[in-house]
Amino acid sequence: MGSRADGLPDAAEVIAELIIGDFGTSYTKLLDTSSSAGPILVKSTELGQEIRADIGTGHNAPLRSNRVVNELVALATGARTRIDSPEFVVLDCGSRDVKFVAFENGRFERAGWNSECGSSMGFSIELLEMHFKLDYKSICVPDEHLPVACGVLGMSAVFDAVSKGEEIGRAVAKFVKGIAVNAHRFAGCPSELYLCGGLCENPLFVKSIPARVISLGRFLLIEGLAEIAGKNKL
Amino acid sequence: MLASRGDEIVDLDATASIVNVEAEARLIPRYYCAILRTVLSNALTMKLDEIYVDVGPGKCDGARHISEILGAELSIPVIETENRDSERRGNPICTSSLPLVEKFEKIVESVKLPRGLGGTYAQSAAKCGFWGVPPRDFGLLELFPRDTHVFGWTRCMENKTPADRELELTYDPSIPTVFFAQSFCAKSSIAYYLAHCHPKGFFVDGDFDISASTRAKVEAFLELNGVKS
What we know:
The complex is a heterodimer. Chain A is an alpha/beta fold. Chain A has 7 helices and 10 strands. Chain A has helices at 61-64, 71-82, 121-131, 151-163, 168-186, 203-208, 220-229, and strands at residues 20-23, 27-31, 40-43, 53-57, 65-68, 88-93, 98-104, 107-114, 192-196, 212-215. Chain A has a 5-stranded mixed beta sheet. Chain A has a 5-stranded mixed beta sheet with strand order 8-7-6-9-10, sandwiched between helices. In chain A, strand 7 (98-104) and strand 8 form a beta hairpin. By secondary structure, chain B is of the alpha/beta class. Chain B has 2 domains: 21-81, no CATH class; 100-224, no CATH class. In chain B, the strands form 2 sheets. In chain B, strands 4-3-5-6 form a 4-stranded parallel beta sheet, sandwiched between helices. In chain B, strands 1-2 form a two-stranded parallel ribbon. The chains are: A alpha/beta, B alpha/beta. The A-B interface holds A 70-73, 76, 101, 107-108, 110-116 and B 200, 202, 211-213, 216-217, 219-221, 223-225.
């Protein structure tokens, strides 16, 4: 599957008999439990109208799911299937929003979901990469970071820095680190942080988080849904 | 006194008028307690003969300041009072099996009645708790099961003892409890702290409308604590 340059499957290739879906703003993660292929990633804008899940989560889940699961519940459930420790903080950094769940002594302790201010972090990081034709794999983590609280507002700080002579890659790296530091603070500044969502595939972002980061991949919510649905085939 | 002389009493906390943030920005900041903004909006738009404002220890500084603003802006009398009632009248609604929204509706309604609503209510074994003031957006309450017991200042309201600090600080540590405060409210500090002290406590705040984020957090808190709606 996947003939496109970006490695994502064409919408036409997506199997229609999906039962589990994480319908994010930019990307949709889908799992067909009748297939052994594992979850797939599709750009949400290219998702066919007919695609519908039996159980779903994410921003667009109400439009496409027979049963909608709260994103924090899907996150917590997925994390508990992967993490043995009774105490952990898991942070989901997606395109539009950031959310975390913290467990202490094996029980739910606190959660946060930042969908307003501090939002669009993943989206703006990806936008800057495309705009400046950067490769985050080749950019080093800077010592400093821009004081950005929100992806959209933070982009102005990048353009301001560039206009003052800052090298583009470095300005963007400072922006990414600012976002990473904010996300870490939002999660309560844990010394160890489990990370999932699209941004865990961005090495610059991951290395910019001031904590020991354990990546759980971008399909953790799908895993949580599979657990909830009782069909954990991952 | 007001009820006995047959006056129609309007609770200015309640949503009687459309709150116009822009219009009121002349008088108060745009980012301000939604409850007090509602009071101001109602007072400015409704035809009233006089306004009584409780500025006693059961209320916040904000109530006193809104009273001062209304006194300066309106031509009708704005009369400050201090409700120091200390006789506890019980809280059968808070511990009843009524849906949580209905509990709050009845308690808010009872404010206008000197003796409360009266009547008997089927009691429930608490599955979870809601601590705090009546939220501006009752949509928050719809997330809870009917066996939710009410704590905090709302319990003081039903009890007719709004300044009863001991009662306000009471909670049940054995049940998962959401500690709620209106955004920009001074009570957010004690709500946050009590949520920290409570073994299964969770703090949320809300402004005019409960955000999708707050809604999701409460749903997750209840579900992950095994509380079914």
